Each structure stands twice: as C-alpha cells, then as structure tokens.
User: Fold this.
Amino acid sequence: MPDWLIALLNNPVAVTALGGAVFIPFFKMLADIFMRSGPKPPPSAYDVRDLPDHPLLVSTKVHLGEPELELLKDAAARSRRMERQLDRLIEKVDHVNDRLD
Amino acid sequence: MDGQKVRHHSIRASIEGLWIEYLYGDGWRLVEIVLGLQIIGRAIAILFFGGMTAGYYRTFPFVDHALEWGLVALGIGVARISGTIINGRWKRSPRLRWACGVAAFLYQGLHCFFFWQIGLSVIAIGYLLWTVLEGMAITRSTIDIARKRNEGCPTG
Assistant:
C-alpha cells in the first residue's frame, strides 16, 4: 500500500469524508428503493360505503349494504316530501294573508 | 399509517409497524430529536464539563480548539432539532433536515472511526449506534424530499 494512502487512512477527518462520500449516495439509493414500493395503501373501509367505486366492488356494496341505509334513505325521502307539503301550506297561508290585507 | 388494519397482533406485526413508521410515519421524528439532544448534550459536556480533556483525546483532530468543537456540536444539534421540527410542524425546508442529518452523520462517524482507531472499541460501538441512526435519518429525510416533490405543494 502506498505511503500516502496509509497516511490518508490514518487521518480521521479524511476517513470521515471518504465514508460520507460513500454512504450518503448509498442512503439516497436506499431511499429510492424504499420509494419504489409505491404509495401508502388507503385507509381500511370500516363501512361498505367507504369502499372505492370500482366495478368489481359493486356486488359487495349491494350484498353487504346495511339495512339502516334503506331506513335512512326512506326517512330522508319522507322528510323531503313533508318539507314540500309544508312549503305548499305556507304558500297557501301567505296567499290568505295577502288577501286579508 | 393510521387506519391500517392489523390482522394479527404479533411481534412480527409490531416490527412491520415500526418499519412503516420509519418509512412513512411521524414517529421517526422523535428519534431525530433524541439524536439532536444527544449532540447538544455532547456540546454541553465539551463546553462546560471538559468533555475533550480526557487523555485519549490527545490525537483528536483540532483537539486544542475545544470551544470551536463545542460550538460546532451545539450548532449541529440545534439545527438538527429545528430542522426536524420545522419539517414536521410546518412541512418546510426538508433539505435543511437532510443537510443537518448529513452533518450529524459525519460528526458521529468521525468520533466512531477515531475511537475505533485508538482501540476504544466500546466507545466506538456507542458512536456506531448514533452513526447508524443518523444514516437512517438521512434515508428518511431523502424519502420525505422525494415524496414532497412527487405530491405537489398545497401551500406553495
């Protein structure tokens, strides 16, 4: 081994610089290898409604749909019908009010 | 990775959770803060408690400039912690975090090689632990830089 190399490897600062020059690109390569595993998986679906809209999952959503969903939809439709009836009644009352004044 | 469904609560699942936490999670920042605190502790030891006056430090590079070494260590430690906090809390300056990781890696690597060279291998193995952890921190901050580049910046 040449003398200058022995003197170089005996110097801690030189060895640190060499080690840094070797390891830091290695860490960059490691980061690329880890990044190649892709993006994070999405959060798990605790309810069937959280599943993504995928054609293969349509049957899952149909079969595993909870009964409360239909009750909820019925209640929503009922309340919407009652709102419209209420609007019509209020319109009639306003009309009578205008006729009185 | 919150919301990841764990099917079996086993040791393997815990290790996999730690690995995912290191790659993508926020828990690794605590390790970086601990590493920065260690360097600050070393700086305080050098500056106030004569950390470099031991006999085996005789051949340390620039051993006469203990004040400069203490200030360098303090700077590296403070910059390390602030880089991690700035990147974690405000999602800014990931390259500061990376650069401080590199500086701390070189600092710990220098000490590790120096003590290995003298023959104090127990102290060298201790510094090797810090060196390996700093290397993992460099890898993690490189991953964060690449992720920020890929995802696009919502705040600009």
Remarks:
- The helical segments of chain A are 3-10, 12-35, 58-64, 67-100.
- The first helix of chain A runs from residue 3 to 10.
